[in-house]
Tetratricopeptide repeat protein (Cereibacter sphaeroides), 469 residues
Amino acid sequence: MRSDLRRLSGLTLSLILAGGLALAQGSAPTPQDLEALNYYVSNGDSRAADAELRRLRAQFPDWDVPSDLTTLGQQRSPAAEIDRIYRQIAAGDLTEARQAMDETSRNFPGWTPPPEMERLLATAEAQAAFDAAASAGNAGAAIEIARRTPAILRCDRVNNAWRLAELQAAAGQKPAALQSYRGVIASCSGMSEVTATLEKAEAVASDAELVELFRLANAQLPGSGPALKALETRLRAGRGDTAPEASAPAAAATGGAKRTPGRTAVAEADLPAAGRPRTAGVARSGGGAGLSAVRAAAQRGDWRSCTGLTSGATSADMLYERAWCVYNLDRPLEALAAFEPAASGRLGAQVARDARFGKTLALLALNMTEEAARLAAATDLTIQQRREVEAIILDQRGVRAYQLKEYRRAIAFLTAYEDLTGGLRRDLAIMRGYAYLNLGKRTEAKRIFTELNNQLATPETRAGLNASR
């Protein structure tokens, strides 16, 4: 099993970004290449159609241009099918997504699945297989799946490494389990990942091994000494050492948490998926007839037309517009790739800032919370952008902490979210109630559920009230 999870995480993201910019080549344009020409012809814009036709002829010199350009509209692009495949992957309908991908390839001979779609589906399939093997207690199968698809062991999926270590420990392979935990500590740079790993590793580590793990953590997280020392003191106290247990505030100082998919078994209410805005206000750049049509589609919220018009785009201007459109079609992987040229500064400082804001939102849409937090911290966002990003980060960290049964942290994150936004969504408020309940603070939990039930009585609030009595 590979231990360099952090390097893999960066490599995976760089491949996504590189692959997302690849252009289809061939002797004739595909239906996607003809989207812009179709648009101009159908709207009677002969000047723009002539310009697009010249571009296509230069790119595809062997193409026989139809004498009647109106027939091009019959070569339909699989935009709707592509959207459906991404939605199926996001919903976990992986068999249907694979079938839809194969059917789309057959029905549209000029179309091949983009690399990021293939990778996303392959990773989701590997995750599902890993989950099945882990649930069955089959450590050998889980290890083999992780070996074939190491992307499932990257730092933003750290729970997979934890589950693998737990399987190894249950199979009596404590040295292997300890090595799995050691790999996370040596590779992941998030405070929450490291501290949670140390807490889990304590169950299989000897006193000397625990000292070694904390030494490794201190080397990995310089500047976090006080928080790590508090955690070490608490873990040693649990072993019967005379050192006093760390106080709750010190233990809470060990940082945020990352999201894992799924639902907790503690509460009956559905846990929230981290929210994100459907649109974003951004600075605009450049000009040109084609760009004007793209912007017009984006301004009226016609994301599909915008995406079709920017198919095969190579300019930073067009890719920037496309990035926001595919983001609003729930295709964050494509958005990450399309934002990159503008984010690197090709369109000026203000657009670069807004593109990095877009990349941050896309990372959050992929639940890559810590990667998004690092990018946001390194970007001079506007006050509004920073509040928006920080709210989503607190949302995701609160959910993740709850799923890890770190209820004090969950409450701290959700309270910070409430302070930042001026309120707490109902699903998050229910989660905070259950967090208090799991800490044995029934009075506070009952107060929350009573208030929610008085606002709107639902099966979830009644269940919370019954549980807190």
